[in-house]
Specification:
The protein has 191 residues and is mainly α. It has 4 helices and no strands. It has helices spanning 17-43, 55-85, 91-116, 129-156. The radius of gyration is 24 Å and the shape is flat.
C-alpha cells in the first residue's frame, strides 16, 4: 500500500504593492531596452550603445546592453511568477511599475546617455532636435501614465491577482469536504 503525499496547501500572502511595482519596473525597463536595441541599433542602425570608439566597440556595447536586457527580462519574469504564485501580486501596482520602467528607461537614455554622458545620439548626420524631443516626450508620457496608474492603484487599495472563480485558498480536503451533507451544505450531496 503506497502512501500518497498530501496535496500542497496554497498560502495566500497579502498583496505586495512595492514588490509588484519594483518587479514590473524591472520588466518595463528591460522591454524598453529591447525595443531600443532591436529597432534603433539593429533594424534602423542609427546608433550603437557606445559610439565614441570603433565600430567593433560599438557592437560589443550593443551585445552588453542586450545581455543586460535579457537578464532583466528573465529575472523579472521569475520574480513576477513568484509574486503570482504566492498570491502577492498587486496587479494595478504591477501595471504602474511596468509603465514607470518603460518611461524611466526611455527618459534616462534620452537625458543621461544622449545629453550628459554623450555615449551616443539617436541619429547622426541630421538635426537631432526633433528626435530628442520625440524621444524624451515619449519617455515622459510613459512615466506620466505609470504615475497616474500608481495613484489610481494606491487609491483603490492593494488588490491581488484575483480573477472571478479563481480561488487558491480552497483545498480538496478543506472544511467543506468533511460536511456530512456534502460540499454545498444544502443536503443530499455526498460523494
Amino acid at each position: 500500500m503506497s502512501r500518497q503525499a498530501p496535496p500542497p496547501t496554497t498560502h495566500r500572502e497579502p498583496a505586495s504593492p512595492r514588490a509588484s511595482t519594483a518587479v514590473s519596473a524591472l520588466l518595463g525597463a528591460a522591454v524598453m531596452a529591447a525595443v531600443d536595441e532591436i529597432v534603433f541599433h539593429q533594424i534602423l542602425a542609427w546608433h550603437h550603445f557606445y559610439d565614441r570608439s570603433t565600430p567593433r566597440i560599438g557592437l560589443l556595447s550593443d551585445g552588453l546592453l542586450h545581455t543586460a536586457e535579457l537578464l532583466g527580462l528573465v529575472a523579472g519574469f521569475f520574480l513576477l511568477a513568484d509574486l503570482r504564485r504566492r498570491g502577492a501580486l498587486a496587479r494595478a501596482h504591477a501595471w504602474s511599475g511596468f509603465f514607470l520602467g518603460l518611461g524611466g528607461f526611455q527618459l534616462f537614455d534620452g537625458l543621461v546617455d544622449h545629453k550628459v554622458l554623450r555615449v551616443h545620439q539617436i541619429r547622426y548626420g541630421v538635426d537631432v532636435t526633433p528626435y530628442d524631443w520625440a524621444w524624451n516626450l515619449a519617455g515622459l508620457l510613459l512615466l506620466l501614465v505609470g504615475a497616474a496608474l500608481a495613484v489610481r492603484a494606491h487609491r483603490t487599495g492593494n488588490r491581488t491577482d484575483r480573477r472571478p472563480g479563481h480561488r487558491t485558498d480552497r483545498r480538496p480536503d478543506g472544511p467543506s469536504a468533511h460536511r456530512p451533507d456534502g460540499p454545498s451544505g444544502r443536503g443530499g450531496g455526498g460523494a
